[in-house]
Task: structure prediction
Amino acid sequence: MNSIWGHHPIDERSTADHAGSQHGETQSITMSTNYIAHRSERDGEEQSLERHLSDVATLSARNAAKLALPKGDNAQHADLGCVGELLGLLHDLGKYSKTFQDYLKSATGMIDQDTDDYVDAEKLRGRIDHSTAGAQYIWKTLARDPQSAFVAQILAVSIASHHSGLIDCLSPDATDVFTRRMNKADDRAHLVEATSKVDPALMHRIRQLVETIDVLEPLSQFLRQIVDIEANNGASKAVVQFKIGLLTRFLFSCLIDADRVNTADFEKPRAIRLRQQKPFTAWDELANRLELHLSDFVGNKPIDVIRREVSDQCRAAADRDKGILSLTVPTGGGKTLASLRFALHHANKYKLDRIIYVIPFTSIIDQNADVVRNILEPKGSRVKSGSIVLEHHSNLTPDEQTWRSKILSENWDAPVIFTTSVQLLESLFGAGTRGARRMHQLARSVIIFDEAQSLPVRCVHMFNNAINFLVEHCGSSVVLCTATQPLLNGVSQQKGAARFTASDEIIPDPAKLFASIRRTKIIPMRRAEGWMDEDVAKLAEEEIERTGSCLAIVNTRRAARTLYLSSRVGQECIKYHLSTTMCPAHRRAKLEEVRERLRSGQPTLCISTQLIEAGVDIDFGAVIRHFAGLDSIAQGAGRCNRNGLLRDRNGRPGMGNVYVINPVEDKIDGLVDIREGRDVAFRVLSEYEQAPDTFDHDLLSPAAIERYFAYYFYRRAGDMDYPVPPEKATRDDTLLRLLSENYLSVEEYKRLNSNSHPPISLRQAFMTAAKAFQAIDAPTKGVIVPYGTDGKNLIAELCGSFKPEIQIGLLRKAQQYTVNVFPDVFDRLRQSSAILEIGEDIGIYHLHPLHYSEEFGLSESSVNPLEFLHA
Result:
């Protein structure tokens, strides 16, 4: 098969050689340069449209080549590289129109205002369609029968959507959006004009791909692979359609990332040198660094011995086949480095592209990433800082995020990525193009989901289908890592269950491990009348006297404040309050104070919301926990006697007490997840009290956790397909349905069209679903608070800055000084002038200093007047 690649040498303004295995001999082609794709703001240099299309095709082909075809097929192609190539060649076909060229040249000063061709580019911004032409070409060329039409629609949707995010095919109001787009008038789509002006060499290659089996056959085979795997697993048609939707998003990701990378590298040529031009291969070197680090650790405490055993079991599991694995290890069992050991050796064995750590909370991502960075990027080595480990999360400030990391974060272009579950879920299901462009990087990767139990319940089925897709079709391995393993493989197969079994557990005997690592004793203390704050405070005081420290974890901000005010401690003891009314910078400072006191053995009481359960590495002598789900109780217990330092009267290892209590007042009716989890925990506790041997005499044993999640998931089954209300989808619907068969929209279409079915195979309402999707349901508004000198100065700078480029940097930094406020509280504070807007009509707010407390953070009532006067 011939190819156009080789028409010119690759220089700084081009991109890496095409790596798709489907390309063979190249031919020399001379391109015209009459049409431009971009003009550099930096130096006025022009990028020809031909060069842009060919370079994007190169990158898009390399991205799509990660999708391999079924083994054993006698196919000419081993992957979908040609599919990506065609998308790249056609995505900006509409830019060959005179309308677009006049617009671009007017916008960049290439056409004088006094000439006839000049147009008002500002008024036309975003109004000239250059993405429909390529989509129409695919559709009109390939849509000759149902099978080829299905392939054509997948490709056409990807091209038509490359600036907006994936469009609806069939909208909830039953509009056939796709067909309407394909029938768009030529005076607006410019297909005829574009195909008459496109470079002959490019057009030859486009026809070569479209008119032979180069694109149609491999993509058809991939669709058959999806259908066959789902049929063998007894999945529903809805799951099949959902997976086809994921395939569409994957190809879309291949295209838009290639487009954005090529455009960015044209504007900033030095960015090319920062990117990985080839898949990372030095996994053995990184694995050796970790092995050397582990060999230097010689701790002899019982907990150290157990952690080494867990690590060794992870090393052994690295030689297993790729797939979905579970890693069930108690808190404090060394999961981070053990899972890294698995990932490095597994990636090396299968020559995978990257390792992605997905962590649910930004509060722990820094500490985990720092641990791994110090091992894989040791000081004094030839490894450049930031070249291996890349963090991508919302808490990064401009000072912490280098220009290099910003470039690489855009598409996760590094060997080891630390990101959040929010970012991961946005890449799979979110709106627009920013998150979606990263989806293809999830292929051929080891993806470790830390604290897997924290997955939002409403995302369960979509998440399960996505990880099955990544493993079965994208060559990845997934590790579900937690102390409280959710039954993601035990939910409805018809809607999507994760495909792993007990044999896929890395730890040979989790029950034995939990028994050996047990450092706490769970003491349920339910009272018919409930616990008063004064009684809780007294219990905490007794535990401080016995062990030196106590942590009390409550379910709400209000409960944390009232318990803190009710607590009385001795003169030598200091008490601390932690909640999300405090900004991240404030919480981090307080946590470091607490850690220092605990390290030095000073009496300490800490009262916190559940934020401290999010993997925070801290070790108290005792814990008091308001009743919640068993997974939350287990996480709370993980902050007690974490390092096994407690001793009994005879000097032998002792147990830390974890008291689980029911407060007199626990206002959690609006906190559905906590309320439902608490009620199920009550049920399991009742059964435990009747037959403790069934649960290995441990309320947090794997058997107890399995029973808990069986009840909890049964109770929440109706929430797992992500319900959406009428204001977001025309009617009550679910994202799972909108992203699969879109059944309700099809029925509405039939009602409006004499019972006729929509004339398209792909019927997903992609854009509607993406706009309705939120990784975290948080109906709050962020308010920048004046914590410390830095917080006050930040607000002053924002209020004094009217330059958007300055404000963007400041706002990134402001994430460390922001508190999320519920709407009713926000309105009351706004009415009392405690919340003020920065600038006019930009929707960014800051808090008056009189309403921020050193103890509690944001406060509705006025605080600290003297501090304010002397600030």
